[in-house]
Amino acid sequence: MKTGCFGMKLYIGVGALWLAGFTAWGQMPSDGAPGGMSGALTRLFGDIKAFSAKADVQVQDTNQEQIADMAMDFAFLEGKIRVEMDLTQMKNRNMPPGMAAALKQMGMAHVISIVRPDKQRAYAVYPDQKAVLTMPLPEEGADPTNTTSKLKKTELGKETAEGHPCVKNKVLVTDNDGKTVEALTWNATDLKDFPVKIETTDKENTSVVRFQQINFARPEPNLFDPPPAYTVYDDPMAFQQAMKKNLGDPVPPK
Predict the structure, then answer these.
(1) Residue 185 CB contacts under 8 Å (≥ 6 apart), including other chains
(2) Distance CA 112, CA 194 (A)
(3) How many Cβ atoms sit within 10 Å of the Cβ of residue 71?
(4) For residue 247, what pLDDT band results from cuts at 50, 70 and 90?
(5) In the predicted model, what is the mean pLDDT of residues 203-212?
(6) What is each CA distance from 9 to 101, 221, 227, 232, in whole angstroms?
(7) Measured on CA atoms in the order 208, 212, 217, 220, is the torsion positive or negative?
(8) How far does CA 122 lie from the centroid of its chain?
(9) Residue 18: what pLDDT?
């Protein structure tokens, strides 16, 4: 089905959002929906149940050439995840020229990704449009406490990462279906063993997440809920049509 210029920009915007939230775990969902590895991510934080931080995600191909670089605000509270970013600041070699400016013009550059395993839902929040696109979480990502997965950690040595003394570990997280996520983590000994750096590799790409300005104060619970006054859509096509009606079909600058 042909979606037109607006539809293409919309799906790239949504895809970029989910990429920002999940590429760190080596999952790049092709249908625009969030990947099912949020449970594996929560296990990497160990006994830490709440924090907020600045995060930077870099993705490289097999030739160690950069595919994407994204800065974001990251928050975590008892299995809930919140990622906020400005897509105009994202570097992505696959993003068409003028895309960032077009997303800003459409009011879709400021995006917030919320993952709620307890509700088995994920939300893409667009504050400038006061709109929310909601999607169901895959079954394997819907365990809020992630008690069913198994974690195996092997120490590889001691290194300094992000300015902190760390223990470098190889971590394997396996769910009940035998699906496994493998990661390298640099756990800071001066920050409750927080993984200040996480690296994952799939068949083609390597993703590295670096955390800075880590704060262990509990984030406000309402940060993990879509704003109540926003319009909620559970159908991507209905969302697209609503945005098109509100904004027309802007053409990106040349």
Answers:
(1) 44, 168, 169, 171, 195, 197, 198, 199
(2) 23
(3) 16
(4) low
(5) 87
(6) 11, 32, 24, 20
(7) negative
(8) 11
(9) 45
